[in-house]
Amino acid sequence: MSGLFVAFEGGEGAGKSTQIRLLAASLRAAGQEVVETREPGGTPLGTELRRLVLDPDGHVTPRAEALLYAADRAHHVDTVVTPGLARGAVVITDRYVDSTLAYQGAGRGLGAGAHAVTVWATGGLTPALTVLLDVDPVAGLARAGARARPDRLESASLEFHRAVRAAFLALAAAEPARYLVLDATRAADALAGDVLAAVRARLRG
Fold first, then answer.
1. Which range among 4-8, 49-53, 158-162, 180-184 shows the weakest confidence by mean pLDDT?
2. What's the number of CA atoms in the CB half-sphere (13 Å) around residue 34?
3. Which residue, among 78, 60, 136, 123, has the nearest Cα to 97 in the 3D structure?
4. Are 72 and 46 in contact (CB under 8 A)?
5. Binding residue numbers
6. pLDDT per position as a tens digit, 126-180
7. Which residue positions form the known binding site for ATP?
8. Nearest-angstrom CA–CA distance, 41 and 50
9. Keywords assigned by UniProt (predicted)?
10. Which CATH architecture has domain 4-204?
11. What is the pTM for the complete model shown?
């Protein structure tokens, strides 16, 4: 595969959508093919699974939740990510494996089980760059609360979201070469400049 795989991670309200939009626009302006996608929801199947797992009125047990995300991810990798990389595109995904490790592994308490199912679902495909937009959960949830009705994850306890943040930071500390950790409270343009520089460095490499 000759393309570049970039994942954006972070807690609720971190500003991933904004940074993905800015990165994609900069790369396209330079003539680069870009695939913007997300998990769950990057395919028609993923859209249905997203509705199920994030429905604020729904109830999904932790293991079932992790398996639904894994099903979405397996289909997403096979039908969107891998074909895009094979064409030489920069594939940018809003959430990937590390979200399962943080949300289901740490937040839901599934631990190593969450890791095993994600490895199987992806066939071991890892992003060349993972951008972690780090924000204190109190600030992030306040941002997210300004949107429409909170989904199942946004409605979880503050303790849950603190565990998710700690897990993301631990993952980044364990793989510093893959991660770019940024303070999500900084100005959007400043963040976008750092992200673009990291992506360009990997494209040159």
1. 49-53
2. 21
3. 123
4. yes
5. 10-17
6. 999 999 999 999 988 888 765 667 777 787 889 999 999 999 999 999 999 999 9
7. 10-17
8. 6
9. ATP-binding, Kinase, Nucleotide biosynthesis, Nucleotide-binding, Transferase
10. 3-Layer(aba) Sandwich (3.40)
11. 0.92
